[in-house]
Design a protein that fits this description.
Strands 3-9-8-5-6 form a five-stranded mixed beta sheet, with no helix packed on it. Strands 2-1-4-7 form a four-stranded mixed beta sheet, with no helix packed on it. It starts with a helix and ends with a strand. Strand 1 and strand 2 form a beta hairpin. The protein has a single domain, classed as Cupredoxins -  blue copper proteins (Immunoglobulin-like), CATH 2.60.40.420. By secondary structure, the protein is mainly beta. It is built from one helix and nine strands.
């Protein structure tokens, strides 16, 4: 019984200390957001599920939205607060060329956009 209790205590400690991650997921594509640009501004990925790791190095909230060639937005991340980072998963994206941009008012017009090529 003590062994089970000790094991549970150790597991709780690992969870409390963030022992299972918090960093960039393996196989993800990192995109850094600042005012008013993405780095890199040109991204190439394989079709299917795409995982982005969004890092906001700016001083205001940003997101990453993806628009297809018809002008339709197909996916938008959650807002990422200044200094934060977030995983953004896009399921089943088809091959093609897309525009990614920040959907916050005025950000895209200020140059916060890029090109996503899916092969």
């Amino acid at each position: 019984m003590r062994g089970v209790a000790a094991g549970l205590a150790a597991a709780a400690l690992l969870v409390a200390c963030g022992g299972s991650g918090g960093g960039q997921p393996a196989g993800s594509t990192m995109v850094t957001m600042t005012e008013f640009k993405f780095d890199p501004s040109t991204v190439s990925v394989s079709h299917g599920k795409v995982v982005f790791w969004l890092v906001n190095s700016g001083t205001t909230q940003h997101d990453l939205a993806i628009r297809d060639s018809t002008g339709k937005t197909i996916a938008t991340s959650e807002l990422v607060s200044a200094g934060d980072q977030k995983e953004f998963d896009v399921n089943d994206i088809a091959a093609g060329t897309y525009t990614f941009y920040c959907s916050q008012p005025g950000h895209e017009a200020s140059g916060m956009k890029g090109t996503l090529t899916v092969t």
